[in-house]
Design brief:
- The chain has about 290 residues and is an alpha/beta fold.
- It has two domains: about 1-110 and about 225-285, Periplasmic binding protein-like II (D-Maltodextrin-Binding Protein, domain 2, 3-Layer(aba) Sandwich); about 110-215, D-Maltodextrin-Binding Protein, domain 2 (3-Layer(aba) Sandwich).
- The protein contains eleven helices and eleven strands.
- The strands form three sheets. It has a six-stranded mixed sheet, sandwiched between helices.
- Strand 6 (about 130), helix 6 (about 135-145) and strand 7 form a beta-alpha-beta unit.
- Helix 3 (about 40-55) packs antiparallel against helix 10.
- It is globular and about 60 Å long.
- It starts with a helix and ends with a helix.
Length: about 290
């Protein structure tokens, strides 16, 4: 696995032009490089501007996929990244043996259930619901449906359930796992669907039309807290911790509200809390 990841990393970093930046050059530079997968959004530019006002030269480095930012961070090609929630980070650490850590939290983006031409759960019993089939989103989708009292999980405390963990006889709906990108198509065909936030705009679906979504302030949403992440040796870096504070400034938050059409829910949790949640998630991932 490490050999495969090493080969993939070399190719990915070459394509992004980051190979030329050694860890020594990062240390010699006053620039803080933070990886992202959506740097074109307004909040990132505002974040850079506010950081500059605070004396921090922040450079947001964009990546085209979700695997490269953690690999680049592990190789010290960037100083931190902000694109993932704690569950994604836990699975990366568990699968690679790395020990990337959270510096601070940013937000939770609720996962929601949509049903074309419906504004409530009324009449949904007996329907077949499309859910994402990738492990992370599928597990969260099942928790959303359980919270809506539409399905019953055999073990409600299980962090990463699969459809096999659903008590079908006690549930009110059936499920069809599909590729996450196909859930808007299922919705368009009149099928209720759990749809990831990043697919809503592409499909022209208004996030406010959700008929149910998970509670971003609930304990069940803790695995999905998005975080600024760095390496263990940089966990207490005062500039990275200051960047977390700047992210929660009114100016950045207003820009983020515009970017997400108000769907992102700001979360401020202590570094100790975040690490505790991550440790539990990593333990669970290793047992899967």
């Amino acid at each position: 696995m490490k050999k495969i990841l090493s080969t993939a990393l070399a190719a990915s970093l070459l394509s992004t032009g980051l190979v030329a930046c050694s860890s020594d050059s990062n240390e010699a530079s006053d620039t803080i490089k933070v990886g992202s997968t959506d740097s074109s959004q307004k909040a990132w530019q505002v974040w850079e501007d506010k950081a500059k006002e605070a004396g921090i030269n922040l450079e947001v480095v964009n990546f085209a996929d979700y695997s490269t930012p953690n690999q680049a961070l592990s190789q010290h090609q960037i100083d931190a990244n902000q694109f993932q929630h704690l569950k994604f980070l836990a699975e990366y650490n568990a699968n690679t043996g790395e020990h990337l850590v959270p510096v601070g939290s940013s937000e939770v983006v609720p996962l929601a259930l949509f049903w074309k031409d419906h504004d409530s759960l009324d009449g949904i019993e007996g329907e077949n619901i499309a859910i994402p089939n990738d492990p992370t989103n599928q597990a969260r989708a099942l928790h959303v449906l359980a919270a809506a009292d539409l399905i019953t999980l055999k073990n409600k405390d299980q962090l990463s359930p699969t459809p096999a963990d659903v008590d079908t006889k006690a549930s009110k709906v059936t499920l069809t796992p599909v590729d996450a990108a196909q859930t808007p198509a299922a919705y368009g065909d009149g099928q209720p669907a759990i749809i990831n936030n990043n697919f809503l705009d592409r499909a022209g679906i208004d996030a406010k039309t959700a008929i149910f979504k998970d509670d971003p302030a609930s304990p069940e949403a803790e695995p999905y807290i998005n975080v600024l992440v760095t390496t263990e040796d940089r966990a207490d870096d005062p500039q990275l911790q200051q960047l977390v504070e700047i992210w929660h400034s009114p100016e950045v938050q207003e820009a983020r509200k515009q970017d997400t059409k108000g769907t992102a829910y700001p979360i401020q949790r202590s570094q100790e809390d975040l690490q505790e949640i991550l440790d539990k998630l990593e333990q669970d991932a290793k047992q899967q």
